[in-house]
Amino acid sequence: MLEGLNPQQRDAVTLPAEHALVLAGAGSGKTRVLTTRMAWLIQTGQVGPHGLLAVTFTNKAAREMLTRLSALLPINTRGMWVGTFHGLCNRLLRAHHREAQLPQAFQILDSADQLSAIKRMLKAAGIDDERFPARDVQRMINGAKEDGLRPGDLDVRDAHARRLADLYQRYQDQCEREGVVDFGELLLRAYELLQREAPIREHYQRRFQQILVDEFQDTNVLQYRWLMLLAGAHTPVFAVGDDDQSIYAFRGANVGNMADFEQRHAQGRVIRLEQNYRSHGHILDSANALIAHNTRRLGKNLWTDAGEGEPLRVVEQASDALEAQWLVDEIRALIREGRPAREIAILYRSNAQSRPIEHALFSARVPYRVYGGQRFFERLEIKHVLAYLRLIDNPDDDTSWMRVVNFPTRGIGARTLEQQADIAAQQNSSLAGAVAFVPGKAGAVLARFATLIRELAEAARTLDLPELIGHVVHHSGLEAHYRADREGQDRLENLQELVNAAAAFVAEEGFQGLPAGRVPAAAAAAEAASGPDAAFDMGAEPSPAVMSPLGAFLSHASLEAGDNQAQAGEDAVQLMTVHAAKGLEFDAVFITGLEEGLFPHENSLLDAGGLEEERRLMYVALTRARERLTLTLAQSRMLHGQTRYGMRSRFLDEIPEEHLKWITPRQRPAAAQPPWSGAFRRGLGGWQGEAGSSFAPRAARTQSSGVTVGDQCFRIGSGVRHGRFGEGTVVALSGSGAEAQARIEFRDAGTKTLALGVAKLEVL
Ligand code: ATP
Ligand code: MG
């Protein structure tokens, strides 16, 4: 087991049972060390498989860890506590839902569900959407939860802060009423549960004799506290991480946890790994050179003896469509050479970028698989079916009620729903609870819907999960609705995929033949026998199987939404955001959209911390590749209905030229670019967009990145003079003809966006 590890890795694997930190760069074997340590601990008899708790960042990583583990040791990994923070907390709360004051069938809101729940709350509270935009309220609530704060813990200095705390409270009340929890709540509840209930806490502290954490740099304050609480006084925590790969600060991740852990717990037991086993020299040196531009680093060295390999290739295309086409041609060539498609990854900064790439791959019939993004379980038609399923499981789930009460249309109008919501608010009940009190015809229509849900719930007592889903699709009217829809065919196919996904899930979890709504007999009996508060005191706490197949599937859909089951197993090109690629590796990687404002993202450019996080993200992207790395960019891009003309990403300039090979001619910055123009490249995003409707035809746009007005041609980088503002540089362009605009960075007058047809500008 220890063979093939280098001495530092071996030291890490065989450390005595104390807190320890492995701090090392990308591809140095952190995850491998962590997995090997799990196997080693088991094999040397220091702990049984069930005495381990291991946390990883994605479900994919958790599965991979279990696969690697069973390759090292012939053990049954089923039922082991290996998963994401959310997955493990969910499991804890299901097992102890009573103590956590949750209904057994509590539903999990993803962030889109959460946003609509917040909008509903704001509306019920009569809150002005202008003053308290739902997204801001959502960010505030999630931020508070990540810091472990309840409404009463907030600092309410002024009226505004008091109001926000009040909204947070109202949202919580609504969630309680509906029996739903959001992602942040999963963690906070689980934390509070352990903190409050000493017997439960002590049980798990005894049970887990070793805790291991991968990607430690991305834990937030609450996750860290949860871990240390679970560890208690005796359980050692083995954490591995890389500060240069901390990419979730925007979601509350706190690199400070590493420093704190090192100082307070690991006290000097820090192991560094310096040899990279993943990437060839050019790739590794590029990544090292790039990250050296960051100032806030703990500092590490990484070297490889894998040889130089090929330089990074850089490709610039006129448009995103051409970029996608180029990618597809290239990938087909790689596949023809015999490279497995799954060893090829296309990475992008934002989900929205995947569309043209998917389109090109699809047209060329190259199999591909998208992680994240418009996830399978997030597609509209899937969410509709899931909403029906959730109502079967828990009719008080108002979010689901609102989603499908009038979908497909049943003639239930907005007024009826308002009336229903008012009644529900008055009697403090769920929407379902208010149906009986809605008078007249409206009441009758609502009652019919309530009856439909009851009938579906009845069906769940006999049908198994895949059958139930087929039944719901049919009886809800969704099937007829999509059949009548011209574009409904795709959606129907996706619904069929949902049935397939459910069948696979049932088989995997051992639920075959069980009615969807029934809790497996053994688990139910165990829980019944142990009584409400003895459940955890029987030596083994209730298994996650206290859930019915339906309940388990709904959790799975909320928590593991990342994978499109439909294409599992197929040898397919991997598409994902850079965030989703963390921890993974591929033979060939394409990083796309290397344009200012896109990567680095425009939102990050306002402060140095934001830019450093983007650079760490780029570091993660670069270090995913083993052999071949290609960087692509487009001069124009259609995004969110806007055409944007971006400059080359600064990250390309931060990689030493000796590692790059330009496949397409390197576009020089425009000759007219004045010497001070460097300023905007550091300080500002490089783009400007406008509504798509007023654009010149696509073909015309993509021929050049310039915009012609009269006899002058404006390009990005052009020097210009304005009568009042003086001299400046064009940093972004959009539109054409009368709609053409330029964003100009003036030397003295700051940045202005000017209509080219109106402003009197002279190209220098
Ligand atoms: P990241 O920071 O990206 O998560 P990591 O530090 O977790 O990377 P691993 O994924 O564990 O790195 O390892 C990177 C690659 O190097 C893997 O393919 C792994 O199998 C391989 N590897 C690790 N250690 C060794 C070794 N001693 N000999 C050969 N290959 C190794
Ligand atoms: Mg790793």
Q: What does the model show?
A:
There is one protein chain. With 764 residues, this protein is an alpha/beta fold. It contains 28 helices and 23 strands. Strands 9, 10, 11, 12, 13, 14, 15 and 16 form an eight-stranded mixed beta sheet that branches. A hairpin with a 2-residue loop joins β14 and β15. α15 runs antiparallel to α24 (549-559). The longest helix is centred in the middle third of the chain and has 22 residues, at 488-509. 46% of the residues are buried. Mean pLDDT is 85; it is low at 527-544, 562-568 and 669-704. The protein binds adenosine-5'-triphosphate and magnesium ion. Residues 4-6, 9, 24, 26-32, 242, 245, 277-278, 583, 585, 623 line the site of adenosine-5'-triphosphate (ATP). Its EC number is 5.6.2.4. Residues 281-583 form the UvrD-like helicase C-terminal domain. Belongs to the helicase family. UvrD subfamily. Keywords: ATP-binding, DNA-binding, Helicase, Hydrolase, Isomerase, Nucleotide-binding. It catalyses: ATP + H2O = ADP + phosphate + H(+); Couples ATP hydrolysis with the unwinding of duplex DNA by translocating in the 3'-5' direction.
Structure keywords:
single chain; 764 residues; alpha/beta; 8-stranded mixed beta sheet; globular; binds adenosine-5'-triphosphate; binds magnesium ion
Mean pLDDT comes to 85
Q: Which ions and ligands are bound to the chains?
A: adenosine-5'-triphosphate, magnesium ion
Radius of gyration: 28 Å
Oligomer: single chain
- Number of separate helices: 28
The secondary structure category is alpha/beta
Main beta sheet, described?
Answer: 8 strands, mixed
Helical coverage, percent range: 40-55%
Principal-axis shape equals globular
Terminal CA distance:
68 Å
